[in-house]
Specification:
Order of helices and strands: HHHHHH
Shape: flat
Number of helices: 6
Largest sheet: none
Structural class: mainly alpha
Distance between the termini: 63 Å
Number of strands: 0
């Protein structure tokens, strides 16, 4: 890389952009690995692809009920519940 390219892109103002892009690429990579390794509908090997449509509901249920979904299942769908209850509930 030339010196002018480094001066243009490696400034402190650009660091948050690099961080955001790094997080986005990391999330995409994590989802890709999760789908390839755990999704029952993705078949990588030739033998598995030749099997056709499988009716393995237990494997699909295990994939769909991942730990994050189990964690948020009984939570209220609010981003800031304390602030919402402060303004919504008169005392």
């Amino acid at each position: 890389m030339s010196s002018s390219t480094l001066k243009r892109w490696l400034r402190p103002e650009v660091y948050p952009l690099f961080a955001a892009l790094g997080v986005a690429v990391g999330i995409c990579g994590m989802q890709l690995v999760r789908n390839i390794s755990g999704n029952p509908e993705v078949r990588v090997t030739k033998e598995n692809r030749a099997a056709g449509v499988l009716e393995n509901f237990a494997e699909g249920e295990r994939y769909a009920e991942h730990p994050l979904r189990k964690f948020v299942r009984n939570k209220s769908p609010e981003i800031m519940p304390n602030i919402n209850s402060f303004f919504a509930d008169p005392k």
